[in-house]
């Protein structure tokens, strides 16, 4: 992408114009980089766009508990600046685990809403407020209208909004294919942990799929789960492998 | 004359209404205290004021021995009607007052139920039309004592008997009072509760020459009231922590909304927004005649100098957002997690208020912890070697999984210094990973050798990402 902009100023100019028509405020929008070159390269702007709505879901059996998705969101929230609002319907997040990915207990304010509608309302309110670093909400259904509202609220304030899609039943997870206005859509699936030379569970590993990305291409990555500062990293045995420069094999959106 | 007896006195046979000399003759060295109706009324008034600040915008004393609170629209903030009543009775019990509580559609039914039904808290189902109190004695109708006596002479014992009678002969004999009380008990006649007020409450009101009803009009006048209230608050150097907005309707009912803030506020825009969000919950009926805005709870608020720093960014103020959310979902649903010194996982987290000071405390970071902790550990079927091996396979929610990798156990002892039942209790926690890479936190109750330490059953307690 960088090559195109430098070589063809006409295209860059056209892009900027389209961006203006879309209501965005130029290309130089702030991003939160992952610190993993392969991921940042795939995302437009070199990182997760701030002031935008992102969706995360768990793959496989995780669709119900949404554990890995919550950790992924917590890692992003930990690296943002300011307080974090976390809207839930089921209060089963465990504080010590959030602290272990760098999200200190003093930073997170939880809202326990009775139903999905209230969660969305609180989510939007949080995004609109503007002084929060990140707003996370656990929702099952996310309609186009609802996500559009959230996206506009996020654009206006600059907070990063993360919707953790978490369903009651495995069958409902098919809802994840429906179109929404979110800027990126991720699926986090657990992988067997890094093998250790001794018996024991090693570093947790995820398959991180970027299913949809506005103005970008989808890709998937195999990463080590968030560390104590909420950063992802490429697994050591994969990063050393030759040809890994092209990590994130491009493929069509599923 | 005996006007009140406590439990011990009742047990020894003393009754209200008995001459004092007779009571003293019945019980040797009886402690007799003079009745102080004025002081009692005063105390009741203070209690009503407390209820006003604690529970709902409309609260008043119901002399001689009761409080009446209009909880419509306020109960969900205290966790629903049942929890609210239980909490209320508990609070009174804590300060040594034996109290009973009831919720009903109208004042009459609540008054009768709470005084004549035995249980501690009662919730009368709504839309009953007064039938629920038909079996109560007529004394429950809030009639004067001579009238109750005269009705008894005529053979009326229960409210149902009275309600079944034609109204005209009764009205002829006892005047309009009887019919009025009956109608109030049936919920046919509105009975506004005049909320208790003290001289130092800051209150502004506005009467309209023509009743208003449109939401836009209400919003406009809310804005004007807030401006007036903020001026009054500023003159006293106060900020509002709780605002009550009351709408006196033309049909003699009062609708009320209440909003609260986490910190004292005197910002016109913020308060107006909080109040305007609640307008849709108010039914204006045939129109609103008077609007009253009261700062039920006000705290000192003075201007502060903001120190600007070149180095750090100032901490953003989120109290405005917290106020909006708290008024929407309820104060207790908004919280932060804080560490609590306990090794038992489910007890190591406590909830604190969203604006409480952050003391920087953290959990010990020795062992990995699961991101999702199940509300209660779920029993699993396992195949495992005793005493200290992790399971080889386990079945959770009907799915059988093979354990590929596992960590050595982390032993958690029961808190014997707090609970006697946990004197020997032990849990051994394992982090295990199945074939697909899903990571779980399971534990075995007991140390695997001594049955006194636990049942040796296995439970799944959390899910790692």
How would you characterize this protein structure?
The complex is a heterodimer of chains A (254) and B (465). Helices cover 32% and strands 24% of the residues of chain A. Chain A is built from 9 helices and 11 strands. Chain A has one domain (31-239): P-loop containing nucleotide triphosphate hydrolases (Rossmann fold). With 465 residues, chain B is an alpha+beta fold. Chain B has 4 domains: 1-35, no CATH class; 40-186, no CATH class; 202-300, DNA polymerase, Y-family, little finger domain (Dna Ligase, domain 1); 372-464, no CATH class. In chain B, 28% of the residues lie in helices and 28% in strands. Chain B has 12 helices and 17 strands. Chain B has a 6-stranded antiparallel barrel. In chain B, strands 5-8-6-7 form a 4-stranded antiparallel sheet. In chain B, β12 (391-396) and β13 (399-406) form a beta hairpin. The longest helix of chain B has 22 residues, at 215-236. The model of chain B has no long low-confidence stretch (mean pLDDT 85). Chains A and B meet through α5, α6, β5, α7 and β8 of A and α12, β9, β11, β13 and β15 of B. β5 of chain A pairs antiparallel with β9 (334-339) of chain B, so a sheet runs across the interface.
């Amino acid at each position: 992408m960088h090559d195109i902009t430098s070589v063809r100023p006409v295209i860059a100019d056209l892009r900027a114009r389209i961006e203006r028509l879309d209501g965005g405020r130029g290309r130089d929008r702030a991003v939160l980089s992952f610190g993993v070159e392969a991921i940042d390269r795939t995302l437009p702007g070199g990182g997760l766009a701030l002031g935008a709505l992102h969706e995360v879901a768990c793959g496989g059996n995780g669709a119900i508990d949404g554990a890995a998705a919550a950790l992924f969101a917590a890692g992003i929230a930990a690296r943002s600046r300011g307080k974090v609002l976390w809207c839930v319907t089921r209060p089963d997040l465990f504080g010590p685990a959030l602290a272990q990915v760098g999200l200190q207990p003093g930073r997170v304010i939880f809202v326990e809403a009775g139903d999905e509608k209230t969660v969305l309302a609180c989510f939007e309110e949080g995004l609109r407020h503007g002084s929060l670093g990140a707003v996370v909400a656990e929702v099952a259904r996310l309609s186009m209208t609802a996500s559009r509202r959230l996206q506009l609220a996020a654009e206006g304030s600059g907070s990063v909004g993360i919707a953790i899609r978490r369903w009651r039943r495995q069958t409902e997870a098919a809802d994840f294919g429906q179109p929404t206005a979110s800027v990126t859509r991720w699926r986090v699936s657990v992988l067997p942990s890094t093998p250790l030379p001794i018996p024991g569970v090693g570093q947790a590993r995820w398959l991180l799929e970027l299913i949809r990305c506005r103005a970008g291409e989808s890709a998937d990555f195999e990463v080590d789960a968030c560390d104590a500062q909420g950063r992802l990293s490429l697994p050591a045995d994969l990063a050393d492998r030759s040809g890994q420069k092209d990590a994130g094999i491009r493929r069509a959106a599923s | 004359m005996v006007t009140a007896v406590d439990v011990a006195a009742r047990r020894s046979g003393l009754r209200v209404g008995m001459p004092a000399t007779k009571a003293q003759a019945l019980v040797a060295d009886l402690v007799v205290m003079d009745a102080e109706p004025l002081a009692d009324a005063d105390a009741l008034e203070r209690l009503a004021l407390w209820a006003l600040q604690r529970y709902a915008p409309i609260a008043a004393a119901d002399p001689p021995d009761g409080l009446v609170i209009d909880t419509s629209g306020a109960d969900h903030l205290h966790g629903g009607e049942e929890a609210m009543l239980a909490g209320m009775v508990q609070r009174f019990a804590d300060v040594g007052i034996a109290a009973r509580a009831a919720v009903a559609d109208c004042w009459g039914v609540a008054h009768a139920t709470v005084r004549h039904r035995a249980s501690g808290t009662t919730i009368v189902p709504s839309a009953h039309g007064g039938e629920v109190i038909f079996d109560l004695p007529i004394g429950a109708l809030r009639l004067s004592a001579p009238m109750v006596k005269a009705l008894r002479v005529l053979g009326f014992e229960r409210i149902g008997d009275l309600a079944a009678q034609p109204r005209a002969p009764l009205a002829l004999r006892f005047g309009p009072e009887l019919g009025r009380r009956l109608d109030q008990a049936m919920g046919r006649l509105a009975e506004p509760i005049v909320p208790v007020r003290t001289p130092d409450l800051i209150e502004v009101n506005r009467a309209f020459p023509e009743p208003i009803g449109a939401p836009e009009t209400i919003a406009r006048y809310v804005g004007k009231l807030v401006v007036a209230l903020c001026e009054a608050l500023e003159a006293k150097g106060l900020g509002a922590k709780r605002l009550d907005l009351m709408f006196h309707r033309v049909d003699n009912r009062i609708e009320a909304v209440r909003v609260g803030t986490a910190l004292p506020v005197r910002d016109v825009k913020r308060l107006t927004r909080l109040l305007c969000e609640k307008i849709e919950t108010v039914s204006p009926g045939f129109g609103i005649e008077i609007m009253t805005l009261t700062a039920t709870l006000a705290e000192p608020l003075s201007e502060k100098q903001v120190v600007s720093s070149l180095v750090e960014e100032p901490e953003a103020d989120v109290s405005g957002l917290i106020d909006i959310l708290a008024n929407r979902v309820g104060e207790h649903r908004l919280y932060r997690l804080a560490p609590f010194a306990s090794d038992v996982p489910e007890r190591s987290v406590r909830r604190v208020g969203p604006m409480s000071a952050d003391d920087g405390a953290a959990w010990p970071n020795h062992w990995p912890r699961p991101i999702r902790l199940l509300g209660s550990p779920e029993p699993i079927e396992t195949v495992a070697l005793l005493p200290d091996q992790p399971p080889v396979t386990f079945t959770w929610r009907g799915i059988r999984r093979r354990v590929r990798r596992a960590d050595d156990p982390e032993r958690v002892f029961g808190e014997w210094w707090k609970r006697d039942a946990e004197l020997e209790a032990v849990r051994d926690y394992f982090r295990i990973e199945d074939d697909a890479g899903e990571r779980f936190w399971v534990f075995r109750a007991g140390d695997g050798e001594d049955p006194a330490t636990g049942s040796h059953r296995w439970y799944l307690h959390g899910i790692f990402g």
